[in-house]
């Protein structure tokens, strides 16, 4: 009987120890579970924050995209308007440009003749942006269409000028353009004082070299201004 009681006590004592051990393990597990729950909670908070940030970024990106699209549309509209106004400006510029007919009589040899005439026309266009020159053949020239007689001063100016004007009626719509390769000491209009020369509309001097064409200097610039004013009279 005593043995049975002792045995029972031992068993109960062992169960008590086991129970105590299980209780300790349970507490440890509860701690681990609590820690895991805290970690999960932290992860949820972090995840929620990331999702919120992502939503904000997506919203911002969508807004920026919409703004970019709007700006692109505005740019396209402005560019289209700019091209339209540019075209209108060019059209108006063409309409407002004065059209003048002009003819040349050159006694220079080629290619110097084309070189001189082309240079004079180019400088006249540059001088008057609103001036549109229509170059017509001398044979088709009508009265009051300015005629520019171009000659090269090679020897005695009076002889060169008379030779250039041979066959040309001296009149107020005729300009004598004297090309010089050397320094001009005296204006040609001061030298050409005979009656026929007085009938001419204007006499100007231009610096010219066969190797370079028309030389830009004060004399040439002044001549182009005078020729431009002369042409605008007709």
What this model shows, in words?
There is one protein chain. By secondary structure, this protein is an alpha/beta fold. The protein is 60% helix and 16% strand. It is built from six helices and six strands, in the order αβαββαβααββα. It has a six-stranded mixed sheet. Helix 2 packs across helix 6 (218-231). The longest helix has 95 residues, at 2-96. The radius of gyration is 51 Å and the shape is rod-shaped. It starts with a helix and ends with a helix. 16% of the residues are buried. The mean pLDDT is 85.
Produce the secondary structure layout.
Blueprint: H1 2-96, E1 98-106, H2 112-127, E2 131-136, E3 147-152, H3 157-164, E4 174-180, H4 188-191, H5 195-198, E5 202-209, E6 213-214, H6 218-231
Parallel strand pairs: 1-2, 1-3, 3-4, 4-5
Antiparallel strand pairs: 5-6
Helix pairs in contact: 2-6
Mean pLDDT: 85
Q: Nearest-angstrom radius of gyration?
A: 51 Å
Number of strands: 6
> Which outline best applies?
rod-shaped
Sheet with most strands: strand arrangement: 2-1-3-4-5-6
Class by SSE composition = alpha/beta
> How many helices?
6
Instruction: Name the helicity range.
Output: 55-70%
Spans of at least 5 consecutive residues whose pLDDT stays below 50 are none
